[in-house]
Design goal:
By secondary structure, the chain is α/β, with parallel strands linked by helices. The chain is built from twelve helices and 22 strands. Bound molecules: flavin mononucleotide and fe (ii) ion (2 copies).
Length: 410
C-alpha cells in the first residue's frame, strides 16, 4: 500500500479489505473495499479518518505515514468524521503510541468514541462552521451531515485545495490499487466504481437518502474541487460525477428509478418456476429490461442493489405453511427495512389448498410502509395451465408499460 499526494500538502493513505469480508458482517464485497485516511500538512499535521483495526492494518498506515515523512508523534489533530470502527478501529493501536494530540469530533461522535475506545485524550467538540487553522495556508472547516448513515457524521473541508473529506458519503465499494484518483483511472475502471457505488449505496446508505439530500445541499455551498471519501476513489478531475451519482441514487428512494424490473422468484417443486419465463418474455416484449434473482440462492446485498435502481419489482413465490415461501418473506422484509419504497409491482405464484402467500405479502408491504403499487396478482392452484401462463405474460407486459411510464428520465 502506497501513500500518495492528491493535492498540495494533502495525502491519501489507505488499506484494502478483501472479498472474504462481509461488510458490517452482512454485505458481500466481491471486489473488496478500501478504507481511506487523509493527512493534511500545514505547519501542524492533521489526520482525517483512519482505518479498521485488523491484523497489520494500523501498521500499514504507520508505514504510509513514514512514506510521507510524518511521524506518529507529529500528528497534532485526529479528525473523526464518523465513529464507525471501519474508520476508527486503528485508534486502539494509535492510543498506545501517543497521547499528545487533540481529537476533533462532533458531540454525538464523542459519545460514541468514548463508548468504543474510552478516549482518554484531549478532545474538542466541533459543529458546523467551526474551523481549525493548521498554518501555512491550510485550514479545516467542519460541517455536520447527521445520519449519513450514523448520527455522528460530519465532513471536513480544506479550502485552499477544495478537498472535501466526506467519509461514508460519496463512498464506493471496490478495492483501490496504487492509482486512487479518478484522473488516474480509465473509463472502464470509473464505470466499475460507479457500479460498486450502487451496491454500497443500497446496502449501507439507502435508507438515509433524505439525510444524503441534506448533505448534498450543504456540500454544494462549498467550493469543492476534490471529493475525498472514506471508501473508493478520490474524485478530483470530476468531483461532480460522484456527487451527481449520489443525488440520483438518493432520488430512487421515492420509487421511480431506471426503466428496469427486478424479478425475484422462489419455488419448491417447480410450479411457480414455470411462471418466470412468460413473465420475463412479457416484460421484454415491451422493451423493458429485467434482472432475475432466485431466492434464497441469491444474496440480499445484490437483490437490494438491483431493487434500489429498479422502478418495477416482480415477485413469483408459492404458499408455504399458510404463509409466503419463507425466504421470500425474509427478502421482502429486508427490502422494507432498507426502505425500498414506491415501486410498481406484480406478484404471481402457486398454492395447494387455501393459499396464504398473498395475504402475508400485503402484511409485509403494509407493516414496512413500502407503498408499492401492485397490479392484480395471478395465483393458481398446483401447476399453472396455459391460460395462467398467458395471463402472466400479459401482466408482465402491463408491468413493463407502467414501469416505462413511471421511470425517471436518464
Ligand atoms: C412444505 C409445504 C407447505 C405448504 N403449505 C401450504 C399452505 O399452507 N397452503 C397452501 O395453499 N399450499 C401449501 N403448500 C402447497 C404449495 O403451495 C403448492 O404445492 C405449490 O404448487 C408449490 O409451488 P412450487 O412448486 O412453486 O413450490 C405447501 C407445500 C409444501 C411443500
Ligand atoms: Fe459508516
Ligand atoms: Fe465506512
Amino acid at each position: 500500500m502506497k501513500a500518495s499526494e492528491i493535492a498540495d500538502g494533502v495525502f491519501h493513505l489507505f488499506a484494502n479489505i478483501g472479498s472474504e469480508v462481509l461488510f458490517e458482517g452482512i454485505w458481500p464485497m466481491p471486489h473488496g473495499a478500501s478504507m481511506n485516511s487523509y493527512v493534511v500538512k500545514g505547519r501542524e499535521v492533521a489526520i482525517i479518518d483512519g482505518v479498521c483495526e485488523w491484523d497489520g492494518v494500523p501498521e500499514s498506515l504507520y508505514a504510509q505515514l513514514d512514506q510521507i515523512g510524518v511521524k506518529v508523534e507529529d500528528i497534532r489533530y485526529v479528525v473523526i468524521n464518523h465513529t464507525e470502527p471501519d474508520h476508527t478501529g486503528w485508534l486502539k493501536s494509535f492510543l498506545t503510541l501517543t497521547h499528545d494530540f487533540e481529537v476533533l469530533v462532533t458531540a454525538k461522535g464523542l459519545e460514541l468514541a468514548q463508548a468504543f475506545y474510552g478516549l482518554d485524550v484531549p478532545f474538542r467538540v466541533v459543529k458546523s462552521g467551526d474551523s481549525v487553522d493548521l498554518g501555512n495556508g491550510k485550514q479545516l472547516v467542519f460541517e455536520e451531515i447527521p445520519n449519513v448513515h450514523w448520527p455522528d457524521t460530519m465532513v471536513t473541508f480544506e479550502p485552499s485545495t477544495g478537498s472535501l473529506f466526506c467519509c461514508d458519503a460519496f463512498g464506493t465499494f471496490g478495492a483501490l490499487g496504487e492509482s486512487p484518483c479518478d484522473d488516474q483511472l480509465d473509463d472502464a475502471q470509473l464505470e466499475f466504481f460507479e457500479r460498486e457505488a450502487l451496491r454500497y449505496y443500497a446496502n449501507i446508505v439507502g435508507r438515509f437518502s433524505q439525510a444524503v439530500n441534506n448533505a448534498i445541499a450543504k456540500v454544494k455551498k462549498l467550493d469543492v474541487r476534490i471529493v475525498a471519501p472514506g471508501h473508493g476513489p478520490i474524485w478530483r478531475r470530476n468531483p461532480d460525477r460522484i456527487i451527481s451519482l449520489y443525488e440520483r441514487l438518493a432520488s430512487y428512494a421515492k420509487g421511480p428509478a431506471k426503466p428496469l424490473v427486478t424479478v425475484l422468484w422462489g419455488s419448491m417443486y417447480g410450479n411457480t418456476e414455470k411462471t418466470v419465463v412468460p413473465l420475463l418474455e412479457g416484460i421484454a416484449e415491451e422493451g423493458v429490461e429485467s434482472v432475475v434473482y432466485q431466492v434464497p440462492q441469491s444474496h440480499i446485498g445484490d437483490i437490494l442493489a438491483s431493487a434500489w435502481e429498479s422502478t418495477g419489482i416482480a415477485l413469483a413465490m408459492p404458499t408455504y405453511e399458510y404463509q409466503m415461501f419463507p425466504p421470500m418473506a425474509i427478502v421482502l422484509d429486508e427490502l422494507g427495512r432498507k426502505q425500498v419504497r414506491g415501486k410498481v409491482a406484480l406478484r404471481v405464484g402457486s398454492f395447494g389448498w387455501s393459499g396464504g402467500a398473498q395475504r402475508e405479502l400485503g402484511e409485509i408491504i403494509e407493516r414496512q410502509k413500502m407503498g408499492w403499487r401492485f397490479l392484480d396478482p395471478v395465483e393458481f392452484r398446483g401447476a399453472p395451465c396455459a391460460e395462467n401462463l398467458e395471463l402472466i405474460r400479459e401482466r408482465g407486459r402491463e408491468l413493463a408499460r407502467q414501469v416505462r411510464q413511471a421511470a425517471l428520465a436518464d
